[in-house]
Amino acid sequence: METLDFLLQGFAVALTFENLMFAALGALLGTLVGALPGLGPANGVAILIPLAFGMGLSAEASLILLTSVYAGAMYGGRISSILLNIPGDEPAMMTCLDGHPLALKGKAAESLAISAIASFIGSFLATIGLVILAPWLARFALKFGPAEYFALFTLAFATLGGITGKNQFKTVIAACIGLMIATVGIDLSTGNQRYTYDILELYEGIDFIIAIVGLFAISELLVFIEKHSSEGLKRVVLNKLKLTAADIIGILPTSLRGSVLGFIAGVLPGAGASLGSFISYTLEKRIIGDKGHFGEGDPRGIAAPEAGNNAAANGALVPMLTLGVPGSGTTAVLLAMLVSLNIQPGPMLFTQNADLVWGVIAALFVGNLILLLMNIPMVGVFVKLLSVPPKYLMPIVTLIASVGIYAISNSAVDLFFMIGFGVLGYILRKLEIPLVPIILGMLLGPEMEKSLRHALTLSNGDWSVLWSSSLAVGIWTLAVVGLITPYILGPILRRKMTKEAEKVQITGS
Amino acid sequence: MKKVTLKRALLAAVISGLCSQSVFAFEQSRSVDCIAPAAPGGGWDFTCRTIGKVITDLKLIDGAVQTNNMPGAGGGVAFAHVVGKRKKDDALMVASSTATVTRLAQRQFAGMDPERVRWAGAVGADFGVIAVGKNSPFNTLEDLIAAMKADANSVKFAGGSAAGGWDHLKVLMAAKSGGVTDLKHISYLAFAGGAEALTQVVGGHISAFTGDVSEVIGFLESGDLKVLAVLSDERLPAPLDHLPTAKEQNITAVAPNWRGFYVPKDISDEAYQWWVDSLDQVYASEQWREVMRKSGLMPFHKTGEEFKTFVDEQVQEIRALSTEVGLIR
User: Fold this and answer.
1) Best interface-test mutation with B: which of A55, A152, A188 has the largest number of B CBs within 10 A?
2) What are the tens digits of pLDDT across the range B50-87?
3) Residue A35, CB-side half-sphere exposure with 13 Å CA sphere
4) Cβ–Cβ below 8 Å for B165 and A348
5) B184 vs chain A: nearest CA distance in angstroms?
6) Residues of A439-451 as b/e, b for ≥16 C-beta within 10 angstroms?
7) What phi-psi label fits residue A159: left (phi over 0), alpha (psi between -120 and 50 degrees) or beta?
């Protein structure tokens, strides 16, 4: 019941006029970012962080804005999947399978509406899951001492590549780059400066936000310049929506199953939204079997992955808020944002910043409703926006990024750092080295180092402290499983995913 | 004779009048700058914005106080900026606190020392505190210090500043005045913030917490934490007057984390005096009392020469302590 009280207080925060506006704005921008192929949710949030700083928003408003962007991006990804057979972001890949064939049958509007409803159900149920699980996990997290945290961070690194990650070696390289960047600055445990060369600007280390904006937003611009792709996507005309109650009831069981699976996939570190949508889709296909016509435009084939990826997105917030360990790339970016706002995620967040946490959770409910409203009657607007040429979009993105970064500290040095990271991001993209592990390395590296040193200080140098509690042993076991599974399951899952995707390309084209 | 005297008297009066007028002739610019050497949202940012508002409300200047955020190197970037580029700027104050002095004392701002600015005044403080979890065997600071006398490494402290930072120094100060000789072997675990350190103490993983009073208030009500001592001269005002001070337990450690300002070195004495007078007026104002009450700041007021002497003493104390435990050479 205590939880309900907090949630009501949260609604009081989220329903103020100002915060409602930010939720709506975030939902709109997020859907747009998600819809544009190439700009995933992590990029979207990264690009819009400077906007929050630039406007000088309070912690609550910034977080409400950015979590709405996050939720919006998960909605938006499906639009280009369905209309153009190009996933707007990675988790929306599975939506292509049945969404596009249905659109080809002249039912694009129905396809979009069904996916919006499934997204809503997934997101809504996962937010309820968050409300139930997060406070419980926050209390449980008090049992985590330095040794347990060290094991937990190792787990996060072990599962970094994720089960669907392509090249484990490149993931490791990326994580190492992040770890190296993170060593710059004052070393908490000794008070010594590391790699600062008496340059005052480096004493506090390199700001996550600058690295994130540079790596994601600026490198996006460089890639765009190189491609010369100044034309927008082809224009699509939508049919008039004819959706019956029976259609909605038809996808309900599927959406429920997809939501639960997606939420679990989201809470587990490393799995993420892509896996959430994939598992939901394959399971649904198995349950329904020959009675359905999957791959040819079955509505349930649209509902399953969409419920799955939206639920996973919210599920990933659970470990981020309660333990300070992000479950996905986007939550890593949100975590960096929290840290920049002087808010330390972890068990104490729920007692010390109750207003903020519950405000954000309530905003997830509100934002989700706004998104549903936006995505059914107003879907035409987004479809039109898809045909806006990137030559108009990219300069705006760059402008927002630069102004926002400058606004954080009024320092031109930060802008040079941002550009430097942009160039680094561009080179890494060319080498196909993933960018998200860099951010995770930067965020988790110092925490992991600190936990290890604290654990050893407490035990007076006895290493066995690292596996002395049953909790720690449990986490170590998970870490080992997480490290080995990709080598066994990865190739099988990946083959299946590409096979499904190829099938669509054949039927779709 | 009489005439001459009268003339002289008149002359003297006029001259002295002119002189005294020139003392008060300093006119502050329409608006002044306050540098907060951190990102928006932190303590220094708060100091600048609240003081700025009170200065404007009291009409000490015609315009407004503009807060400029200049984060970097724990205040080092702002310090170097003021020393290097704005040393004659009359209309500039910089928010500072014990953390600034700690870093200066330990020579952490490359090539800088406390003599290169003028210390204007402090207008409030948060006092140091040493606390333990509710299941801890220690009930007084004396118990804790006694255990440390037997084995300095037996008590582990968690705090929200880097090793050698203010939270670490508080432990060393208390231990030293309590008669612990083996200061080098006291374990201090550094966290990125007080909240993170408290989590570990409340969770029972680390034995003691060192930090500021404002950080533990939330945990006093829930009973998760036992405060062993507040490091202040006297007991804090109600409702915190039930907390014992270290002094009552014969440990003379006083650790105020004051909030105040420095101004550039080469401004005129009149301009410096204007800042001192203004800070005195702010401290005496009803508006500032209200800010202190709301933000949990404790009474602490030193300006001008008195403040300068206090800063010098704090620098000496920190330097001596840091050298003793090998934090600086």
Assistant:
1) A188
2) 899 999 999 898 888 888 888 888 888 899 899 988 98
3) 27
4) no
5) 13
6) bbbbbbbbbbbbb
7) alpha
What distance lies between CA A17 and its chain's CA centroid? Answer: 26
User: Looking at chain A, which residue has its C-alpha nearest residue B38?
Assistant: A409
pLDDT > 80? residue A316: yes
Sequence-distant (6+) residues with CB within 8 A of A435 are A174, A215, A216, A219, A425, A428, A429
The span from the CA of B189 to the CA of A453, in Å, is 9
A460/B200 Cβ within 8 A: no
Token pair, residue B27, equals 């006119």
Contact of A460 with chain B, judged by CB distance below 8 Å, is answered with yes
CA distance A130 to chain B (A): 22
Instruction: Quote the minimal CA–CA distance from B101 to chain A in Å.
Output: 15
Cβ within 8 Å, pair A188-B71: no
Query: Has this prediction a pTM greater than 0.90?
Result: no
Coil, helix or strand for B106? coil
A38: phi then psi, degrees, rounded to nearest 5: 100, -40
Do residue B190 and residue A450 have CB atoms under 8 angstroms apart?
A: yes
B316: helix, strand or coil: helix
Q: Is the peptide bond before A345 cis (omega within 30 degrees of 0)?
A: no
ipTM of the modeled complex: 0.77
Q: Interior CA angle at A329 toward B42 and A335, to 5°? A: 15
> How many CB atoms are located within 10 Å of the residue A187 CB?
18
B39/A142 Cβ within 8 A: no
Q: Which residues lie closer than 8 Å to A2 by C-beta, 6 or more apart?
A: none
- Encode pLDDT of B300-313 as tens digits: 999 999 999 999 99
Closest C-alpha among B256, B248, B250 to residue B314 = B256
Domains and CATH numbers, chain B: 32-125+256-324 (3.40.190.150), 143-249 (3.40.190.10)
Q: Report the DSSP beta bridge partners of residue B229.
A: B130
Over pLDDT 70: what percentage of chain A?
91
Q: Measure the CA dihedral B193/B195/B196/B198, to 10°.
A: 120
B135 — phi, psi (to 5°)?
-95, 10
pLDDT score of B21? 42
Chain A residues lying within 8 Å of B68, measured CB to CB:
410
Q: What are phi and psi of B88, to 5 degrees?
A: -110, 10
Give the tens place of pLDDT for each residue, A355-396. 888 988 998 999 999 999 888 888 787 777 777 777 777 787
Q: Evaluate whether A383 touches A138 at the Cβ level (below 8 Å).
A: no
Q: Within its chain, how far is the Cα of A220 from the centroid?
A: 18
Nearest CA of chain A to the CA of B83: how many Å?
A: 14
C-alpha–C-alpha distance, residues B310 and A77, integer Å:
61
Any B CB within 8 A of A462 CB: no
